[in-house]
Amino acid sequence: MNRPLADIMRPNTLEEMVGQTHLLKEGSVFRNALNNKKVPNMIFYGPPGTGKTTIANIIAKQSNLSLYKLNGTSASTEDIKKVIGEIDSLFNGNGILLYLDEIQYLNKKQQQSLLEFVESGDITLIASTTENPYFYIYPALISRCVVFEFKAISSKEIEKGILRACSVLNIEIEEEALSKLALASNGDMRKCLNNLEFLTASLQNNKITLDRVNELIDKANIVYDRGEDKHFDNLSALMKSLRGSDPDAALFYMAKLLEGGDLIAVCRRLLCSASEDIGLAYPQIIPIVKAAVDSALQLGMPEARLPLANAAILLATAPKSNAACLAIDAAIEDVHNGLGINVPRQLQNTHFDGKDAKVKGQHYLYPHDFENHWVNQQYLPDDIKDHKYYVYQDNKYEQSLKEYWNKVKKK
What we know:
Strand content: 5-15%
Strand order of the largest sheet: 2-3-4-1-5
C-alpha cells in the first residue's frame, strides 16, 4: 500500500517543522521545555494541517515515554480504560504519553475518567482540537493542562514545505506555480501536500507548471487566503469599517470574507458590532442583525449574502455608542482587582439574621412600591459604592434616558 505524501513528508524533528515559529523558535518557553525533556500536560488548539499531531509524535520520541494514540471521533470509554490499564505495565517504565486527537468529541464522563491519572502524573496528556478548548473541553481537565494555540501556516512557510517535498520527489516546480499552490492551501500543509501528490501523479514530465496548478485549484479557493495574517486583517478591516460608518468598505471586506468561504466569521463580526459599536444608540439593531444572521445561516451561500449585506449597511449607517462596552470592561476590571466582594446586606438572598449579626433585618426597599418605580438605596458594595461604569453618550436615545432618570432621581 502506497503511503500518502503527507505521511512520507511528516517531520521527524522540530527543525524540519514549518510554521508555528511562535512556539518553536529557540528560547521560547515551549521549545525550552521540550529541549529539557519536560513534557507538561498540553492542549494543542488550531486549524487542521498545522502540525499538532506531528509535534506530539516528536515530543513522544524525545521524551522516551510510551506513546498511545486515540481519536475522539472513534474512541470509546473502553479504549480509554485500556490505556489506563497499561499504567503499571513493565513496558511503560518511563511513563505513558497519551495523544488524544479531536478531544472535543469525547463526552464529559470520558474526559473526567482521565482526571485522576493526569493529575497524578501516571499519564501525560497531549490533546488536540480544532475547536476553542474553553468551550468544548471539561474545565477541570483544562485546568490541569497548558493550552497552546497553533496558527494557520503562512504561504511563505508552506512554500518551504513544497520545495522540500519536490526535492524528495525529484521534481521541479515553477516559481508562480509554487506561490499559487501555497496560497491555495489556506494555511493547511496537509491539504497542500495532497494537492502536490495529485499533481505529481498527473505529470507528463518532471516539472509542475502554473497551468497545471490552475487546472487543479478552484479559483474561489484562492480569492481569499484564510491561512495568512490577511485573514485577520480582513476581519479587523470589516469591524473597523462598520465602526467607522463606511458602508462601502464594510461591504467590500465582507465580500472578500464570504468569497473565501468564511460565512461564520462574518456573522460573528456583525453580531459583535451591533452590541459593541451601536448598542444603546439604536438598541433595536441587535435583534435585527440577529435575525439577518439567522436567515443567512439557514440560506447558506450564495443567498446568505443578501441578509448580511442589509445588516452590514444598517450597522455602518446607524448612530454609534460604545457606552455598554466601556461600562462592562470597567466593571470587569474592578472584579479582576478583587473589589466588591461583599454584597450589601439589603441585596443578599438571606432573610434570617444570625444571633451574632450586628445589623438586624435585611431592609431591602422594593422599587415598585415607590413613585416612578425607583427609590434611593445602595446597590454596589461598600468599597466601590461611588464607582461609575456607565456614562450616557451623545445620541438621541441615551440622552432621552438620561433626561428621564435625572428628573426621577432629582425629584
